[in-house]
Amino acid sequence: MAAFKAILIEKSESGQKVGMVDFDESNLMDGDVTVRIEWSTINYKDGLAITGKAPVVRRFPMIPGVDFAGTVETSSHPSWKAGDKVILNGWGLGETHLGAYAEKARVKGDWLVRLPAKLSTREAMAIGTAGYTAMLAVMALERHGLAPDRGPMLVTGAAGGVGSVAVALLSKLGYRVIASTGRPQEAAYLKDLGAAEVIDRAELSGPVKPLAKERWAGGIDSVGSATLANALAMTRYGGAVAACGLAGGMDLPTSVAPFILRGVSLLGIDSVQCPLTMRTQAWTRLESDLERAKMAKMAVDIGLAEVIDTAPRILAGQVRGRIVVKIG
Question: How far is residue 93's CA from residue 307's CA, in Å, rounded to a whole number?
Fold first, then answer.
């Protein structure tokens, strides 16, 4: 069996070790499709896995990386054949199943989504799990009935990966977007993506009141903790906030007041176990609803060798938009 380059996380009594290795293909895990990976990306969860800041990795040794786009090399799955272009997001990749920071992966065919015809594999990972999650959040808000005429939409953590795509998507769909960020220097970037207003995250990170002045019809939150609690307290009657991240913490210091006095809904967004039909719908929507010019503004390319040093930066809030990883 051939060897290929991969990032490997190993664990010993002294702690976690991460490095680039030559990985033998015979050591790949079970699966009915082998994919030659062309592009991946760095998400917040990848940063946690590589730095060991949270118990993302559940088995060792582990190749991290929760999503990829590439070309099928071999398949015994009825839906896939050699040469097919595919995307994989989640399903335990980089957590319980050897992941994307490698030149090859062997996975279950049921986990794969066909690459939309108008997207390249590089563009798919410029979107990545962050953008796919943002699209799932937009779809959830639409199912709740939050059309643009209902009022403005809040996006927290707006300069990050999920936030950047959420701002771009919501503005393209006609919503007035209020972008919250702790990086005021990114105001011009966010307005280029479509934000109508940029507010300081301090407006949402302070003490939480049960209810506050109604400011938006709903929103997309990737921060959690007090930020999400304040966003809920400021949501208009009958509105909803889609929660999809925990950059600010896993706690939620809120009360029942927004839910029982204003009829506000909290919509949970899970990208890891999301059913195939919804995944396919999300990627179809991303193909049509995310403007290529805005995608170009938010994405920066790096090589596989740069991933380890980049991971701590995403946790420190030093990464704007999307980082796309060229594999090989």
Answer: 17
